[in-house]
Amino acid sequence: MNVEKLVYGLYPKSNELRLHINRWEKGTIPDSSLNDMIIDEKNSLYKVYNDYNIVHTDPLFNWYDIFRPLALIIDNIELGSLTRFKETNTFYRMPIVNEINDIIIDPAGFSPLNEEPPLPLYLKGDNFNAFLPSPLSFYRMSQVALEYRDFEKKLLNIYSKILNIFKIDEVVLYDPLSYDSNDIIDITPLTDKFIVKLVTTGKLYKENIRGKPYSIISDYSNSNLEISGELSEVPGLKLIDGYNTKMEDINEINNIINNLDVDNLIVSHREYFDFLPRIIADKKLSLMSKIGD
User: What is the pTM assigned to this prediction?
Assistant: First the structure.
């Protein structure tokens, strides 16, 4: 069996970078200095990913949450109040979406943002997947003045522009919220042009997803694996816990994998690693590198 490992989303910052951000927030260092530090941190982590042969997204060190930079670069989206992220002790700024017209700030260039770490959105030059919230969770976790289908179509058009600006062929879409049986997410505009990996949460239903992604990565269950295998090219399972500091047993994970009736598999994690201390997240990266050996 061919096993690919994927790490996505916000990755915990080092203590040094946190101190840099704290100094920047107090106005003692300029945006450019913080940007240089973020670039150095990203390059250092990219080397670890590559040494471990782990497919990855940009670690998003200059994001406070998964919606904020998009709200800042898209016309007619504003940042609302701090809102609890699911049932965790973390918060995000709820986007207020009046309309979706176009990108108003170049996401690829260095650009200071008001009271936010500076752009670029991603660090160019490394072989990484883009990371973006799925339209369904974006819609549900925002205050939106559009019908969902209109919102979805316009947001996916913006996503295509972002991917083209960065010349990225692969993207991870993240759904932190569970689907209901009658939910439908139509990602055909992306799957027709890009290699899409859709990270889902909770139970999958066959009717949920339109457009065939490269992979649907789901919580571990036989039902989810069957649906993921039917609706995507390569099924994926979340076998690492991004909430829990307890280290997984590599032998147990490999036993699960060896008993699956699939030729190809993507292994990933539940939630992104930013909920963990950096030292624990780094250890889980090392453990993931051994999956499938």
Answer: 0.96
